[in-house]
Amino acid sequence: MEINDAPKARLAHYLRELDPLTAALHREAAPLLGHAMLDLLEEAGLGPGNIEAIGGEGPLALAISTAILHAAASRGQYLDAFTVEAGAIVPAVGGPVVVVGFDVAQVPGGPSAGPDALGENGPQVGDPQVAGLAVVVGAAKTGRAGEPGEDGVVNLALFEASDLEEEK
C-alpha cells in the first residue's frame, strides 16, 4: 500500500527508523503520531466529541495516548488520557473510551477483546464503555471505518505491517 499522505509518510519513516516508544516520545514523530491517530479516530466517529478518554496498558500506550491528547488540544478539542493498572482505569473515567496500543499484541486481549480490553474482569472503575480499539500497526480494521463489530467495538489500525517494511 502506498502512503500518499505526506505527514503519515513522514511518520512511517520514523516508525521504520525508531523503536515504538522512542517514536511515540520523539519531538517530531510524536505530533505526527498524535494527529494521524486522531484523524483515524475522527473518521471512525470516535473523536473528542464522541469519547471521553483514550488510553491503554503500559508506557507505550500512555505515550500514544498523550500524543493524541496533545493533538486534540492543538485543535481546541479535549480528551483525557488514562492507563490501565490491574484491570482498572486510572484515573476513573465514566464515559466511552478508546483503548490504544502500538500493535495488537500491545492491546490487552488483542483485537478480539472488545469490552474486555480493560482486563479480564472488564472495567472496574467508573464503568466506562469501550467504544474502540485503535493500534498504530496491525490488521485491526473490521468492516468500514466507524462500523462496530459484533461486540459493538470499532477496531482500527493506522498502518498495516506491510506499510512499514523497508522502502526499496
The beta-strand count equals 6
As laid out across the biggest beta sheet, the strand order is 3-2-1-4-5-6
> Can you give the mean pLDDT?
81
Q: Compute the number of helices.
A: 4
How would you sum up the major sheet?
Answer: 6 strands, mixed
Rounded Rg: 15 Å
**Overall form:** globular
The ordered H/E elements are HHHEHEEEEE
Assess the beta-strand content as a share of residues: 15-25%
State the helicity in percent bands: 25-40%
**Structural class, from helix and strand content?**
alpha/beta
Unreliable stretches covering 5 or more consecutive residues: 121-125, 140-144
N- and C-termini, Cα separation: 13 Å
Describe this structure in words.
It is a single chain. This protein is of the alpha/beta class and 168 residues long. The chain is 29% helix and 20% strand. It has four helices and six strands; from the N terminus they run αααβαβββββ. The chain has a six-stranded mixed β-sheet with strand order 3-2-1-4-5-6, with helices on one face. Strand 2 and strand 3 form a beta hairpin. The longest helix is centred in the middle third of the chain and has 16 residues.
Give a brief outline of the structure.
This protein is 29% helix and 20% strand.
What is this structure's SSE topology?
Blueprint: H1 6-17, H2 20-25, H3 29-43, E1 53-56, H4 59-74, E2 80-85, E3 88-90, E4 97-103, E5 130-137, E6 154-159
Parallel strand pairs: 1-2, 1-4, 4-5, 5-6
Antiparallel strand pairs: 2-3
Helix pairs in contact: 1-3, 3-4
